[in-house]
Amino acid sequence: MTRLTKRLALVLAIVALLAAACTGSDDSEAFKIGLVTDTGKVDDKSFNQSAWEGAQEAAAALGAEADYIETEEAKDYENNINLFVEDGVNVIITVGFGLGDATITAAKENPDIFFIGVDQFQAEALPNLAGLIFPEDQSGFLAGALAGMLTETNIVGAVLGTDLVPPVVAFKEGWEHGARYTNSAVETISTYHPGGLDVAFGDPDWGAATARQALDQGADIIFGAGGATGNGALIEIASQEGAYCVGVDTDQWNTVPEARPCLVTSAMKLITPGVADLVAQAESGDFAGGNYLGEVGLAPFHDFDSIVTDEMRATLDDVLAGLNAGEIDTGWPPG
User: Fold this and answer.
1) Which of 322, 335, 325 is CA-nearest to residue 141?
2) CA 279 vs CA 45, 261, 321: distances in Å
3) Among 52, 83, 139, 194, which residue has the fewest nearby CB atoms (within 10 Å)?
4) Please, what's the b/e burial string for 251-262 (b: 16 or more CB within 10 A of its CB; e: otherwise)?
């Protein structure tokens, strides 16, 4: 009986350990974050990358898992979102205006999953979907105001992604109005990529060629706002001695070092902290659907700090105050 009792005790102990292991696995299951890019790559050194860095920042702070899917073509939006749904993620981040409809559909079909739509204005508030939006017109206006003060030829340019994306148009309108606000003599040369969403943000060769055209027409400071397309413009401008360029979305001094010879500043959308904050809200249970307004601003001037005079800085401070008070018309929305 003693040997039988010992065997029984051993079996019970093993069963208890297995049960404990299973219970521990359930309790420690990580919070999961999935990110779906627009047709630009996750390392586009701009828009998608900033959102992915926000997802990674949140994952590190929460002890969560984060993964991404790169979208090759716009027709894959829905399928890519559903891959994360099937994987049982807790939060799905979709990056870009183009994913808006697919994100709304997925949020309605999966009320237990939180969704964050970067640059996706929500006309109808859903409790599990937050649109992370930004006043791009204000960021562009600040950059344009600086450009109006820096230009010597009184010609400023912009190389842009498609006008099918409202935030891109808002950047452009703010840039042009800002330049004219500080310099009434300014002429503007702004060019949108002629392609659709599939190609407009991933064409650095077109960006470089378009920037070269603007330089040849006399522009001496050019805004590149269009993912990899804009980055191609910045790198081309960097080869032109005496020309300045302005980056977009993030501080591109850090992400596009090839542009440093011309990069005065960047018109920033603080995407990374916005994404990280919304993911944290989802994990804590404080998530609220609807629109979440992120912050914008200008990046540091880095090697060009000495050319931005005290007078220029004071003007920029006044412009920022006027924008915050709603006293300055940025040209967006139109009319």
Assistant:
1) 322
2) 21, 36, 30
3) 194
4) bbbebbeebbbb
What local confidence, expressed as pLDDT, does residue 40 receive? 79
pTM for the model stands at 0.84
Task: Write out pLDDT tens, residues 148-195.
Answer: 999 999 999 999 999 999 999 999 999 999 999 999 999 999 999 999
* pLDDT exceeds 70 at position 11: no
| Contact (Cβ atoms closer than 8 angstroms) between residue 262 and residue 238 | yes
What's at 255, amino acid-wise? T
User: Reduced to 3 states, what is the DSSP secondary structure of residue 235?
Assistant: helix
Helices and strands of the chain, counted as H and E runs: 11, 12
Which residues are CB-neighbours of 82 under 8 A, at least 6 positions away? 106
For residue 130, the cross-strand partners are 116, 290
**Confidence band of 20 (pLDDT split at 50, 70, 90):** very low
Per-residue b/e over 70-89, b at no fewer than 16 CB within 10 Å? bbeebebbbebbbbbeeeeb
Averaged pLDDT score across all residues of the chain: 92
Report yes or no: 46 and 250 within 8 Å, Cβ to Cβ: yes
Query: Letter for the amino acid at 46?
Result: S
Per DSSP, the residues of 159-202 read EE--TTSHHHHHHHHHHHHHHHHH-TT-EEEEEE-SS-TTTTTS
CA distance 200 to 160: 8
Q: Which burial class, exposed, middle or buried, applies to 21 when counting CB atoms under 10 A from its CB (0-12, 13-18, 19+)?
A: exposed
Phi, psi (5° rounding) for residue 209?
Answer: -65, -40
HSE of 4 in the Cβ direction (CA atoms, 13 Å)?
A: 1
Residue 335, pLDDT above cutoff 60: no
